[in-house]
Design a protein that fits this description.
Elements: H1 3-28, E1 31-34, E2 37-40, H2 51-55, E3 58-66, E4 69-70, H3 73-86, H4 95-108, E5 114-121, E6 140-147, H5 154-158, E7 160-166, H6 181-192, E8 197-202, E9 205-209, E10 213-217, E11 222-225, H7 236-247, E12 251-254, H8 259-263, E13 267-272, E14 276-283, E15 286-287, H9 295-311
Parallel strand pairs: 7-8, 7-14, 11-12
Antiparallel strand pairs: 1-2, 1-6, 3-4, 3-5, 5-6, 8-9, 10-11, 10-13, 13-14, 14-15
């Protein structure tokens, strides 16, 4: 190696180290919200007796932030309210206050593009008992932010591969529970396979992704995604994409589909708050169409981003 090459390599390594240290410092300087207080993320703590920790007795939501504003947040809060209602869990704050906290976190963390995570649990009892606490236990509410450039994500241009795994979850997937072990295992299997997502299969049909909703575009130009039921989470981004497609007179069928249908389709893609619309170019190592992102997914992504920017608050 020449002296010049050594110096350039040294400078590059130094830049990577500096960027890593800056990222770590920024994360340590982040502000979180825990039960009424804004605190440094490194100091954010809940009790080891919290039922979210002991029993996964809690609900969570994730809202995207674009240009410092919350995207489709009303839909996420409506789903939060429904989910806590399904497990008889009272919100510790009214929805109006939750929005204020979200905005305060965005401001304190100077977040331009990323995500706001929130979690509500049944709180910390005096011991570990499966039954709900009888009285005197206030639900826990925690929130934090993370930086993510969703709009300019490289995978949106290149597409991702997905793998298929059995759907081993409980039968109330419409509740956005923090009990995510099955999804963790699915996403880990995808990571080990070099894939961007796992599609879960039940009775020969796709239910949804580990953290996304699944779509295909048939050869007849029909958008297909599974109908809402207790078998899947009612995705907020999925809901918006379906509505935006129908507004443009695109044909949408809400029904289950098989992997064979997906491999025979013109396109496949996934949706979620953390990635908007992302094309799928392979399934279990087999290419979808020509193995490249299709025009429908690209167009729906543009339409959704326009919608997000126009309606974010």
């Amino acid at each position: 190696m020449t002296i010049g090459g050594f110096v350039r390599g040294y400078k590059f390594a130094y830049m990577l180290l500096a960027a890593s240290l800056l990222d770590r410092r920024n994360r340590l300087n982040q502000i979180a919200y825990v039960n009424g207080a804004f605190v440094p993320l490194a100091e954010a703590k809940v009790s080891i007796l919290d039922r979210g920790f002991l029993f996964a007795d809690g609900i969570y939501e994730v809202s995207a932030v674009l240009d410092g504003k919350l995207v489709d947040n009303a839909s996420h809060l409506a789903r939060l309210e429904r989910s806590v209602g399904e497990i008889a869990l009272a919100l510790p704050e009214p929805l109006s206050r939750i929005v204020e906290i979200q905005r305060e976190l965005i401001a304190r963390n100077q977040l331009e593009n990323g995500l706001v995570y929130m979690e509500v649990t049944r709180g910390a009892d005096v011991g570990r008992d499966f039954a709900f606490p009888k009285s005197g236990v206030k639900p826990t509410l925690v929130m934090f932010t993370s930086v993510k450039d969703i709009v300019n994500a490289p995978a949106a241009k290149a597409g991702i591969g997905v793998i298929t795994v059995p759907d081993i979850r409980w039968t109330r997937r419409d509740i956005k529970s923090v009990a995510l072990l099955a999804q963790v295992l699915a996403k880990q299997a995808a990571a080990e396979a070099g894939a961007g997502e796992a599609w879960m299969i039940e009775d020969g049909k796709v239910t949804e992704g580990g953290s996304s909703s699944a779509f295909i575009l048939t050869q007849d130009d029909v958008l297909v995604t599974r109908q809402n039921s207790s078998a899947i989470l009612p995705g907020c981004t999925r809901r918006a994409v379906v509505a935006l497609a129908e507004e443009r007179q695109l044909r949408v069928e809400e029904r289950p589909f098989t992997i064979q249908e997906a491999l025979a389709a013109k396109e496949a893609f996934i949706t979620s708050a953390s990635l908007f619309v992302q094309p799928v170019v392979s399934i279990d190592g087999k290419t979808v169409a020509n193995g490249k992102p299709g025009p429908m997914a690209a167009r729906l992504r543009e339409i959704y981003i326009d919608f997000a920017r126009a309606t974010a608050v």
